[in-house]
Amino acid sequence: MCGIVGLFSKSRQIESQLGMYLSEMLVEMTERGPDSAGIAIYRNPTDAKHTKLTVLSPENEYDWQQVSKDLSQRYNGEVTFEVRGNQATYTVPGGEEGITAWLHQHHPDLKLISSGSTIEIYKSMGLPSRVIDKFNINELTGTHALGHTRMATESAVTTHHSHPFSTGEDLCLVHNGSLSNHNRLRRVLRKKGIIFHTDNDSEVAAGYIASRLQQGDNLDQALTASIDDLDGFYTFAVGTKDGFAVMRDPIACKPAVIAETDDWVAMASEYRAIAVLPGAAEADCWEPVPAKVYSWKH
Amino acid sequence: MNEFNLDQTSVRELNAALHNPDLAVNESSWKITNSKGRHAVAVGIDATLDVQINGHVGYYCAGMNKKALVTINGHCGAGVAENMMSGTVRVKGNASQYAGATAHGGLLVIDGDASSRCGISMKGINIVVKGNVGHMSAFMAQKGCLVVCGDAGDALGDSLYEARLYVRGKVASLGADCIEKPMQEEHRAELQALLDEAEITECSANEFRRYGSARKLYNFTIDNVGAY
Question: Phi/psi at B16 (nearest 5 deg)?
Answer without folding.
Answer: -60, -40
